[in-house]
Design goal:
There is one protein chain. The chain is an alpha/beta fold and 443 residues long. The chain is 54% helix and 13% strand. The strands form 3 sheets. Strands 1, 2, 3, 6, 11 and 12 form a 6-stranded mixed beta sheet that branches. β4 and β5 form a beta hairpin. The radius of gyration is 30 Å and the shape is elongated. It binds beta-D-galactopyranose. The site of beta-D-galactopyranose (GAL) has 13 residues, from β11.
Length: 443
């Protein structure tokens, strides 16, 4: 029989063995943990580098030839800085479809890294906490002293910089085909009386005076230029920015609506809803002699090989000389689970740099957002747009049709009211004025 001492010693030895084992395990575990920590610490920077090197997902509605050429300019500049971008290009001029796609991606918890969000939609998305602040980039790149004040104000919300501006489009642009005008000895019209004279001569030659589309956003784009010329910049701001509902019942609005209806019927054919590029194609092919559209149409014509000094020209829509009805394209960086901050900031930095600004805007048809640019190398339309926007005495007014002035719902309600007025010939202008007055009524 084993003595108490033996069993104590035995037990002690066992305890020691277990303690040693435990110690070994602890050390092993510690070693394993340290190994894990080490590999993770080595792995995280690799992952971050990998994540940063991954292309940025960029959602926008630039799908036409000119728009795609401009996007390629951005691609090329960004690649030089090691930034790659994957296009999520949603067709549909004016961006209504793109905004819908963006909404659904965000709801599915899969927002893109970057999105074309412009004007008032920017602040809406920022209020939802989805937009990444760019103050660090703005300070580093000295945006406040170099960008146009109107642009800096547009991308700053409650002291936070919420987007990178790309270019300023001029909506109140009348394009004309130089070959047709030279052949018929015509001059681009500066007022509506001259426009009527030119249109009369063109119709007499069997040429459609004005390329047209019945798409609601295109109708709204034409209308806001006519309205600006009819009522002037101050009244325009009352109507569109301050949304003074009663002002929509004034005679100036009736004149602008009557002018709009006259323009739609000027070709004597049955207008159709078609892409803006189809209307621009009419101008290029001389089946129509003029078009009222934002100057993205210039980017398109140039992408088709037309030369703004030889083949087509542009002037301000009659009655809007020295006025700039603007729409500024901007890119917002969306906060997503991918944590792409460094790459998103780099994108914001590159797209606002002078060389990229020139290359992008030359192709896009818009003009640089920087007030310190030398635009001598741009075409005459661009130089005119930029200098009118830059001139202290000019009237710079925000486009409603392109989200610079009111929320999405108001923009759409106004476009619908105008469209309804045009496709209902028996609707008197006064009835449309009442619809517009309620459409803009501030909530
Ligand atoms: C505008 C946009 C422009 C141009 C246009 C036609 O809303 O700001 O960049 O693309 O739509 O699609």
């Amino acid at each position: 029989m084993q003595s108490a001492t033996d069993s104590f010693l035995e037990c002690n030895a066992q305890g020691l063995r277990q303690a040693k084992e435990l110690e070994m395990n602890r050390r092993n575990a510690h070693r394993q943990v340290m190994k894990l920590v080490l590999s993770v610490s080595l792995w995280v920077p690799c992952w971050t580098a990998l994540a940063q090197a991954m292309p940025l997902d960029v959602l926008h509605w630039w799908t036409s030839a000119g728009e795609q050429l401009a996007v390629e300019q951005l691609h090329a500049s960004l690649l030089l800085s090691g930034v790659r971008w994957t296009d999520v290009a949603v067709p549909g001029g004016g961006g209504m479809a793109a905004v819908k796609v963006l909404k659904s991606r965000v709801l599915m918890g899969d927002p893109p890294d970057v999105a074309q969000l412009i004007g008032t939609t920017l602040t809406d998305w920022n209020d939802m906490g989805l937009v990444m602040p760019l103050n660090a980039v703005a300070n580093r790149q000295r945006w406040a002293p170099t960008l146009f004040p109107t642009v800096m104000k547009l991308v700053t919300y409650k002291g936070v910089v919420i987007a990178a501006p790309l270019g300023i489009h001029r909506i109140n642009t009348l394009f004309y085909n130089r070959h047709v005008f030279t052949r018929l000895g015509l001059l681009p019209p500066a007022n509506w009386e001259e426009f009527e004279g030119v249109a009369h001569k063109l119709s007499a030659q069997g040429i459609k005076p004005l390329a047209w589309s019945d798409e609601a956003w295109q109708i709204a784009t034409v209308f806001e230029s006519i309205l600006l010329g009819e009522v002037g910049p101050e009244r325009y701001r009352e109507l569109i920015v301050n949304r003074k509902s009663s002002a929509w019942l004034e005679p100036g609005i009736e004149k602008a609506l009557t002018r709009l209806r006259w323009l739609r019927n000027i070709n004597g054919d049955t207008p159709k809803e078609r892409a803006w590029t189809d209307a621009t194609r009419d101008l290029a092919s001389e089946s129509a002699a003029m078009q009222i559209m934002g100057d993205w149409a210039k980017g398109e014509l140039m992408a088709w090989g037309a030369n703004p000094e030889k083949d087509f020209g542009c002037v301000a829509v009659p009655g809007t000389q020295q006025m700039h009805l603007y729409s500024v394209d901007t890119l917002a960086m969306l906060s997503s689970k991918n944590k792409r901050t460094a790459t998103q900031e780099k994108l914001a930095e590159v797209v606002t740099s002078s060389p990229t600004q020139l290359a992008y805007n030359r192709a896009k048809g818009s003009v640089p957002v920087r007030a310190d640019m030398d635009v001598a190398s741009l075409d005459s339309c661009a130089r005119d747009s930029w200098s009118v926007f830059a001139a202290p005495g000019s009237a710079r007014v925000p486009s409603l049709a392109h989200r610079m002035a009111a929320d999405e719902a108001t923009k759409d309600a106004v476009a619908q009211a105008l469209w309804r007025f045009l496709i209902t010939p028996q609707m008197p202008a006064k009835a449309a004025q009442r619809r517009l007055a309620s459409a803009v009524r501030a909530p």
